[in-house]
Amino acid sequence: MPDAPTAAPEAELEDRALVARWQGGDERAATRLVEMHAPSVARFVASLGEREGAAELVQDTFVRAFGSLDTWRGEASFRSWLFTIARRLVLDRRRSARRQRTIASLDDEGATELAGGDDVLGGVIAAESAVRLREAVATLTPTQREVFLLRVVEGMSYREIAGVAATTEGAARVHYHNALRTVRDYLDA
Amino acid sequence: MREDWDEGELRDRLPLLAAGTLAADEGAAVRARVAADPALAEELALVGALRAAHLDAPVVDVTRIVAALPSPASVRAARAAPVRADEGLRVLRLARVAAVAMVVAVGALTTYMNATVPGASPAPAARAELRLGVPLDELSDEQLHALEAEIRALDGLPAEEPEAAVHPALELGA
Q1: Of the candidates A27, A54, A149, which has its C-beta nearest B58's C-beta?
Q2: pLDDT-based confidence at A115, cuts 50/70/90?
Q3: What is the C-alpha end-to-end distance of chain A, expressed in Å?
Q4: Mean pLDDT of all residues in chain A?
Q5: Domain spans of chain B?
Q6: Helix axis angle, A169-188 relative to A142-152, nearest 10°?
């Protein structure tokens, strides 16, 4: 079953143009690229359980990326390429520090403001707090959680997810649907 | 653009719809199908809520990150450098692995010959080949590290025939 083609929106075209401008010597293009992608990279790193060291990992990701921009061929989106670098840095950090991956800390400051707009979503908000939703996702295996969040939060295609998470498109699809079923079961319990 | 998606294909598109990464026309078509299907609408709401619950991210300092980036000129200069700084270490590592591999291969050859042809004079040490599938100098640093570790591990293995005679020509250092 072919995955839905994600749009190559203006954002991706802008990425390519900004990279070309930076390579041509326009250092302001780097600021724009960092502004556009740093929050996503930080979110991704935190989802892998590295919330505390996220700032340093995000910085290292961009330093590594800009130091090897000529290796980005544009086959993967700039964002998913950044995620691949970040993931590798997270794994390197764990190998050197010899510590177990921890589940991302739960934010229990209260419900995150959720997008509203229709009655069905309003009903879900009434039924579940953001805390419980994050608890449900925290019960997933590391691979399921990574794939699930890349699909749900970042809206990545299975092909992009496969590239980032070092898996296959088919496996990514299976992980996503298994994860959704597990989350539902947790919320229904 | 086809719109005759089955239920599985529609469900696959819901997180992309929630994240806004579906193409515009496809997004509109999926929304129309979702509006007509309560089960899909509920799943879209759940996916949207899950997304919203995970949108927070650690604070990032864009200025600090940008300040740490290399300049385009420095990256071009680094690429133009003729020899990598660690190339010498890599050559030494290759030589060490090749030497150890040669010793292991010669030792194995000696053991085999003494086991199969007792008393026979072993042929002069033939050029040993270590069947890696690729030439040694094409191994990546990671592959070299792994090979070194494997060869070191062999040191801990007892010899099959600790008393086997070794032809003087094959003695180490001869």
Answers
A1: A54
A2: very low
A3: 31
A4: 83
A5: 7-66, 86-118
A6: 90
Q: Spell out the alpha helix ranges (H) of B54-135.
A: 62-68, 72-80, 87-116
Long-range contacts of A41-44 (CB under 8 A, 24+ apart): A41/A82, A41/A83, A41/A86, A41/B60, A42/B57, A42/B58, A42/B59, A42/B60, A43/A153, A43/B54, A43/B55, A43/B56, A43/B57, A43/B58, A44/A83, A44/A86, A44/A87, A44/A149, A44/A150, A44/A154
Contacting A residues, span 27-56, partner chain B, CB-CB under 8 Å: 27, 30-31, 34-35, 38-43, 45-47, 51, 54-55
Distance to chain A for B94, nearest Cα, Å: 24
Nearest by CB to B16, which of A27, A62, A155? A155
pLDDT single digits (tens) A3-16: 766 655 667 888 99
CA A111 to CA A131: how far, in whole Å? 6
Tens digit of each residue's pLDDT (9 = 90 or more) over A130-155: 889 999 999 999 999 999 999 999 99
Nearest-by-Cβ selection for B65 from A9, A59, A123: A59
A130 within 8 A of B52, measured Cβ to Cβ = yes
CA distance B64 to B60: 9
pLDDT over 90 at B34, yes or no: yes
At a CB cut-off of 8 Å and minimum separation 6, what does A57 contact?
A45, A50, A86, A89, A90, A93
**Position A119 confidence tier, pLDDT thresholds 50, 70, 90:** low
**Positive or negative CA dihedral for B155, B156, B157, B162?**
positive
Residues 104-163, chain A: which have Cβ within 8 Å of B?
Answer: 107, 112-115, 118, 120-121, 123-125, 128, 130, 133-134, 136-137, 149, 151-157
Residue B66 has pLDDT above 50, yes or no: yes
ipTM at complex level: 0.77
Q: Are A172 and A160 in contact, with CB atoms under 8 Å apart?
A: no
Contacts of A71 in chain B (CB under 8 A): none
Given pLDDT bands bounded at 50, 70 and 90, which one contains residue B133? low
For A23, list phi and psi in degrees, rounded to 5.
Answer: -65, -25
